[in-house]
Amino acid sequence: MENLYNTSSILVLNRFEFSSENVFPAFLFATLSYMIILFCNIILILTIVLNKSMHQPMYLILLNLPINDLIGSSAFFLHSIDEILTNRKTMQYSACVTQAFFIHIYATGTVLILSAMAYDRYIAICWPLKYNTVMTYAHIMRIITVVWMSCLVLVGVLFFLLLRLPRCRSELTHPYCDNPSLLTLVCANTAINNIYGLLMVAISQVISNGMILYTYLQILVACFRSKRSDTKAKALQTCATHLAVFLLLECLGLFTIISYRIKNISPHLRRFMGVSTLIFPPTLNPIIYGLKTKEIREKVVHFFRNKILPS
Question: Which class would CATH give 18-298?
Answer without folding.
Answer: mainly alpha
